[in-house]
Specification:
Strand 18 and strand 19 form a beta hairpin. It is built from 4 helices and 31 strands. The protein starts with a strand and ends in a 5-residue tail after the last strand. With about 375 residues, it is mainly beta. The strands form 8 sheets. Strands 3-2-5-9-8 form a 5-stranded antiparallel β-sheet, with no helix packed on it. Strands 4-12-10-6-7 form a 5-stranded mixed β-sheet, with no helix packed on it.
Length: about 375
């Protein structure tokens, strides 16, 4: 006796597994997306008994190539249709061939193609920011973005603004800066900093579908002209010969003020441990925040450093006006001696002595030795 099994159908792109007794399904795919049709025969004990599955459309067998891909996993066989177009609508069949006496039913899909069905846009969201402060806009459309391969972009007052991972002016004439990024959960963010009243306006988070439709979320950003206290200023002058300088910022006095975040900036740019690896290090000990500079360099490290704490209505900052003076060794030390003869290890030496007053206190030594290999040609 021959046993007859019905095919179980599923459409992977729609995350839908059809009932096991289904023979035909009508499926819709948006223009420009990739569509996956899946046929599964659950009652086949050995997946290898299904020798092959032939996919046909309008009476013609579909061959793998630029438009179509086959794949299988266990008893499930799939057809991937790339970049679906209107010409792809119609009826598709999956016809199995087996190595046993089982008789498996064909699967059938009736595919329609058209413009994507967009959800209703949410009401505009009002965002109130304070002048000189920061803010973030985010839109969570991750599932549709991934499923349909959507392109995301931001606009300000109807004008497209380019993606930027670094602080970029929103428009000419405003101090407001922005940067764009996506987080691990697929949400898209527009981070605003140094906000001023000229940065207020309508921001839109937009998703463009392959069929040219656009889904948008609107943010109406208001900026209140509020000013926090002036920076507390410390002037720091240090010489390259000191090698290391630490800037300390004690935020314990603001513990009850509602600090939402803190950051370090240098000349208006956010500083992190990736800014100058090995030379600039950010340290934390509770409310004590420290920026440590190693291998001091007059050109690289002079500037205005700010330890900024974001409060509910405005930021407060401790500012360090740092001046790194060039090395004074050439002035304070006598000329180098002649190189010594080479020793048994192939090394040579030369010496110089500090001749300025207070050398021991300033440098911690008064006598400097330089070593070189004899083959270095010094």
């Amino acid at each position: 006796m021959r046993t007859f099994f019905l095919a179980s159908l599923a459409v992977v792109a729609a995350l839908l597994v059809l009932p096991s007794d289904a023979q035909s399904q009508s499926r819709f795919f948006p223009l420009g997306t990739d569509a996956t049709l899946e046929c599964t025969w659950d009652d086949v004990e050995n997946p290898d008994d299904i020798k092959l599955v032939k996919w046909t459309y309008k009476g013609k067998r579909l061959r793998e190539g630029k438009r179509y891909e086959y794949s299988r996993e266990g008893n499930s066989h799939r057809l991937l249709i790339k970049n679906v177009q209107k010409k792809d609508k119609g009826t598709y069949f999956c016809s199995p061939k087996v190595n046993t006496d089982q008789e498996l039913a064909d699967g059938q899909f009736v595919v329609s193609v058209g413009k994507a069905k967009l959800p209703n846009a949410p009401d505009p969201r009002e965002i109130n920011l304070s002048e000189g402060g920061t803010g973030s806009l985010n839109c969570n459309y991750a599932e549709a973005k991934e499923r349909y391969g959507l392109k995301q972009y931001w606009t300000y007052n109807g004008e497209k603004i380019r993606d930027s991972e670094s602080a970029t002016p929103v428009h000419e004439g405003s101090e407001t800066q922005y940067r764009t990024y996506s987080d691990d959960q697929g949400r898209d963010w527009l981070a605003l900093s140094n906000v001023d009243v000229d940065g207020a306006g309508t921001y839109m988070c937009n998703y463009k579908y392959p069929d040219k439709q656009i889904f948008s979320m609107q943010f109406d950003v208001n900026v209140a002209e509020l000013r926090g206290p002036a920076d507390v200023v410390r002037n720091v002058t240090v010489n390259e010969d000191r090698y290391t300088q630490s800037l300390s910022c004690d935020l314990s006095g603001l513990a009850d003020a509602g600090i939402s975040s803190y950051r370090w900036e240098k000349d208006g740019e956010v500083v992190s441990n990736e800014t100058d690896p090995g030379r600039i290090t950010l340290l934390e000990d509770g409310m004590q925040k420290t920026l440590e500079i190693d291998d001091l360099n007059s050109e690289d490290h002079s500037g205005v450093y700010r330890c900024i704490a974001e409060l509910p209505y405005y930021p407060v900052a401790l500012r360090f006006n740092v001046v790194v003076e060039p090395s004074q060794k050439e002035r304070d030390f006598a000329p180098w001696s002649q190189w010594s003869s080479c020793d048994r290890q192939g090394k040579k030496y030369r010496f110089r002595t500090c001749v300025a007053d207070g050398c021991s206190d300033y440098y911690g030594f008064v006598y400097e030795v330089e070593t070189a290999m004899c083959n270095e040609g010094m």
